[in-house]
Design a protein that fits this description.
- The protein is of the alpha/beta class.
- The chain contains 9 helices and 8 strands.
- The strands form 2 sheets. It has a 5-stranded parallel beta sheet with strand order 2-6-1-7-8, with helices on both faces. The protein has a 3-stranded antiparallel beta sheet with strand order 3-4-5.
- The structure holds 2'-deoxycytidine-5'-monophosphate.
- 2'-deoxycytidine-5'-monophosphate (DC) binds next to helix 2, helix 4 and helix 8.
Length: 224
Amino acid sequence: MQVAIDGPASAGKSTVAKIIAQKLNFTYIDTGAMYRACTVIAKENNIDYGNEQGILAAIDRNEIQLKAVDGGQKVYAGDKDITRDVRLPEISANVSQVSALPKIREKMVSLQRKMAGEMNVVMDGRDIGTTVLPNAEVKIFLVATAHSRAQRRMLDLKQQGIKSDQTLKEIEQSIQERDYKDSHRQISPLKKATDAVEIDTTEMNIDQVVEAILVQIKKSQKNI
Ligand code: DC
């Protein structure tokens, strides 16, 4: 079974996707972390964020892997654990540019489809329902105001112990810039699939969002 959860930055996708995967004993796949890993690999190899061939070659030398650990997920580039690096503000600021490169997307999408073909998955991202898994049994599109997403992002960084000099206003601005870039790129832009269920999480807590998604999953299971 495939559950696709899409939506803009910091709408709560990964938090709820992890919980749902754990409840259903499915594998959680954070596709944003894969594009972030490409960006970290570019940075560490001093490759320009627009150099598609250079980044592709570096990814071939440093295989990107997602490893499940106690309900969470670790990100590796080759044998290096880059789980923390992928969340750094410099990576957040440049991942939209790297993830817009067509050949990088091609490579990541093919990896994502391979994983989804081998196991039951909850996959979160921007184009899962539209492009990666167009036949997913359940498609969810999470939205929330930019302000509430900025508040969540700030809390996330704090909880992960990542120091950032950005104010709430600056985080909100960078989220809006990323939304714009992600929704306006040429290849598989951030877009709600026509058959996705939209959930506005602005006024909802995590348990309520999880519950709303589980209802959709149960509905789809009845239809199988
Ligand atoms: O979900 P996130 O913020 O970790 O994603 C990081 C970036 O990766 C996001 O700005 C856009 C890109 N992305 C994408 O293009 N397609 C996906 N399926 C997931 C993320």
